[in-house]
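During the first year of the project, the team set up a workflow for recording each protein of interest as an amino acid sequence followed immediately by a discrete structure-token representation. This format lets reviewers and collaborators read both layers of information side by side without switching files. As required by the reporting guidelines, we include two representative entries from the current panel. The first entry is reproduced here exactly as it appears in our internal archive.
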Amino acid sequence: MRLKIIIAGLLTGLIAFAPMAAMADETETLRIILTGDHYVLPAKKGRGGFAKLATVVKQERAGAEHSIFVHSGDAYSPS
């Protein structure tokens, strides 16, 4: 009886995940760009700071068809 339950569970798992295996050739890449805890971003000699951050984010987004930019906070003062 125990063997039947195990076999039934395995078959159910194979049937449930079969559509996912069929779609495996149609995958996409998602680039997640995360930033945070940068309340001190000094600009040295006119370079850096939030302007530099914006440039880096634009470059990263340009290199990926699908991307998400997430800012996790702490931009003005430490928590």
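The second entry, processed by the same pipeline in the following quarter, appears below.
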Amino acid sequence: MKQTVLAILGSLVAVSAAGEPSFTQPVDCELGETCYIQNYVDRDPGPADLDVACDSLTYNGHKGTDFAMSGNLDINTYFRGFDVLAAADGVVRGVRNTMKDKANPTDTVDVSGKECGNGVVIDHGEGWETQYCHMKYQSVRVKQGQTVKASDVLGQVGLSGRTEFRHLHFSVRKDGKVVDPFDADSTGTCTSDLRQLWDTPIPHVPTGLISVGIDDEVPPYDDISALPISDTNWQGQPKALVIWAFGFGSDAGDILHMNVNGPNGTLFETSVVLKKEQARYSRAYGKKRPSQGWPAGNYVGTATLQRQGQAVAQKEVRFTLD
């Protein structure tokens, strides 16, 4: 699988004021490749939702940054998992490590009072603290009162607490009040005058593709959103070839182009106009096996997302048919 992010938006300036902590990325993953940001802090004080770039990649009242796992992971990466890292030096103030992960992201579990799931809270001094939520069951390896350094491993990303997808919810507070690490003062004007607290600037990416795959039928959304292991080993001739794409942050008018190329050129293609804003979505398109069967050889399926006439993300999946 190959992914290309063709356009990103956001300020690339990170400036911390005196006495403020500077935060490292709290998940050991590569943004734009093995992970992405699904939700930012909601900056609108009312019922609307507004992220740091005056976009809608958040939801009403969201108080943190959601680092989510991408799809199309190889089997070693999938089972190794992703480490959660301390964002700055500090002292562990609280931990929870006893909540089992959901067997499926859509499972309904009563988590009243424990919405964070397994997690860690770190005190950084002078009223600053960070919280790490939805960690893997029994992965938390720090204890209350323990001193940690920036980038120390706290545990792993999981699926515990109130969540419908595998991610780390990372929140920052100063004297108990929510702080957006993408704009500490919350006074920036969309993509300008932002004062990030990240030690290495993190750009705002408003939309993208999470995964792309090939199947012999349209897979259910729940299967796609569970981020299955990338597997393109076919046994025999599939009854159909269906390319599916899973994306985030759609706007009305976005265009998703999907195509499959085989040994003899383009096998099929389509362009789908997305009709509304959606936090996460999937689309699929395919073709039944012809009477003479599929040509033997190498194939590539490609999904390209366009916004306002510009390609902003692309992913591809390769497979071979005998």
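For the second entry, the following points were noted during internal review. The chain is about 5% helix and 40% strand. The chain has two domains: 9-179, 208-321. Both points are flagged for discussion at the upcoming steering committee meeting.
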